[in-house]
Amino acid sequence: MTEAWGPGGDDGQPRRGATGPVRVRVPAKINLHLGVGPLRPDGYHELNTVYHAISIHDELTARHGDTLTLTMEGEGTGELALDETNLIIRAARALAAHTRVPAHARLHLRKQIPLAGGLAGGSADAAATLLACDTLWGTGLSRDELADIGAGLGSDVPFLVHGGTALGTGHGETVSPVLARPSTWHWVVAVADGGLSTPEVYREIDRLRDAGTAPAALGSADSLLAALRQRDPAVLGAALGNDLQPAAVSLRPALADVLDAGRAAGALAGLVSGSGPTCVFLATDAADARRIAAELATTGVCREARTAHGPVAGARIV
Ligand code: ATP
What we know:
Helices cover 33% and strands 31% of the residues. The protein is of the alpha+beta class. The chain has 2 domains: 18-178, 2-Layer Sandwich (Ribosomal Protein S5, domain 2), CATH 3.30.230; 185-310, GHMP kinase, C-terminal domain (Alpha-Beta Plaits), CATH 3.30.70. The strands form 3 sheets. Strands 3, 4, 5, 6, 7, 8, 10 and 14 form an 8-stranded mixed β-sheet that branches. A hairpin with a 5-residue loop joins strand 1 and strand 2. Helix 6 runs antiparallel to helix 7. The radius of gyration is 20 Å and the shape is globular. The termini are close together. Adenosine-5'-triphosphate (ATP) is lined by residues 80, 86-88, 115-123, 125, 156, 195, 198, 274-275. This is 4-diphosphocytidyl-2-C-methyl-D-erythritol kinase. One of its GO terms (biological process) is isopentenyl diphosphate biosynthetic process, methylerythritol 4-phosphate pathway. It catalyses: 4-CDP-2-C-methyl-D-erythritol + ATP = 4-CDP-2-C-methyl-D-erythritol 2-phosphate + ADP + H(+). Pathway: Isoprenoid biosynthesis; isopentenyl diphosphate biosynthesis via DXP pathway; isopentenyl diphosphate from 1-deoxy-D-xylulose 5-phosphate: step 3/6.
């Protein structure tokens, strides 16, 4: 990537932007703990979550252009609208409005994160766009400033700007890094056919709670945070939890078979990722993850079983 003087800022000084393409890789997220509190008057649920970035990545390339355009390849091509509703376009426009530069870029997405899978692919793409366009336009915002703009686009965007493992509170948009001694965790990711709508899954957990058929809410993430510090996958496996899991399984009963199949294949633990329908399984090590993925793939309970590790960095230029 080379640099050039870009459009001027508020101070009339030209900005140093990139001349060549800017390529950004951004990870998917899973939630090691997803505690869902009551519905707030503003329509959001109060969350206590531990985000964890894993090594399934989307890649966004930004080039200079005369207008704002978006093309894509990979997961969801032909299904995902590339118009003003796309979080990539919305992120580019939000950054342009914030920094008062024209929203001009040719954007291309290589998507590997399954659509509507509970892996926050859309939020990941928004985080990647903020970083790519900030670099392309030379607007020079900090990660924290990009995360603040991202919070207006989606609850998971600030986390995906930062990556790693982090505690999320509020409706997930307030993130603070989890300071654990570095450990790598190995996962099997069971990708489902078709997605689940996040708002629908939240409505379903409210319905199950109103009917008195939902398990007790998980509450704080303290036990998960303590388990992370022990660096023992069996301990971490026992501490994983997701309040949305009963709702996702209620809407998609076949997920119970996926969870059973992963455990039968020898996973330490399995859970629905976020609002689903992706299920993730914790393995002892990388070889164990490969073995579980291969076995899961033969059962036919999921479209695809991938291996991944975490934590990984958030959006970054490659
Ligand atoms: P959430 O972040 O709500 O948990 P998810 O991980 O289940 O969502 P996403 O892949 O982020 O699922 O997509 C949710 C919806 O967001 C999609 O169905 C789509 O309509 C919309 N969307 C907008 N832009 C994008 C994008 N760039 N990638 C994926 N989805 C997008």
